[in-house]
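Hi support team,

I submitted a single chain yesterday and got back a structure, but I'm not sure I'm reading the token output correctly. Could someone confirm the output below corresponds to the sequence I sent? I've pasted both exactly as they appear in my results page.

Thanks,
R.
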Amino acid sequence: MCLIVFASNCHPVYRLILGANRDEFRDRPADPAGYWSDAPHILAGRDKQAGGTWLGITTDGKLAAITNCRDPGRQVINPPSRGKLVAGFLLDKLATPAEFQGILNRDGQVYDGFNLLYGTGNELHYFTNRGGSSGPITPGIHGLSNHLLDTRWPKLTVAKSRFEAILLQTNPDPEQIFALLSDPARFADGLLPDTGVGPERERLLSPIFIDDDAYGTRSTTVLLIDRSGLVTFIDRVFDRFQMTSTTRCFRFRIQSPAT
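Hi R., thanks for writing in. Yes, this is the structure output for that exact sequence:
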């Protein structure tokens, strides 16, 4: 993922409301969201190249999502896929967030820069291997792009503001979250960060929704977990060349209450 906005334990109806865009090279193959045949408790899309995922949830309420941390000056030689971190947490039915942080503290530096959300609807944690403050996430509205949690990049600031307005509703409409995450407008050069990729690529990557032939927003996911444990997972995959999208909606009740 390259843009995530989420409300954690601050809405009267929902424990968690999350909207996320997956930005990726268009020629990298992936399966759309579904229950994994080799791990049917996992609901997620799947990277067919490395086998991991960018965002997923399990039937017993564990969830995780990842964004890359844009840091071209600190790239690792032949790193493992960061999507394996998300899959690793979801596959391990026994690991608690605290135990998984120990794994991340031990092994996190072998990966290129990343931001990882992981835990449950009630206990969400954040970890980055790029020097930010890792640990439990405080209740409230937060966002992640390609830097640390809540970094005030223009697209994240705008997305969070629009997201907060939607959450004033008792029952937020997922289509409104999809709409806010579909904005392709670029921001003025003077507002953009300098992450070391050059002005032209900073412009390309600046919108909430990236629309380019080679690289762009491949899918958007909206995830809601209400206070009774009912999960709504809506995944919309875009085919830029066919000018079409395919939406899949999944609903289930967490098998045992999330802790």
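A quick pointer for reading it: The mean pLDDT is 95. Let us know if anything else looks off.

Best,
Support desk
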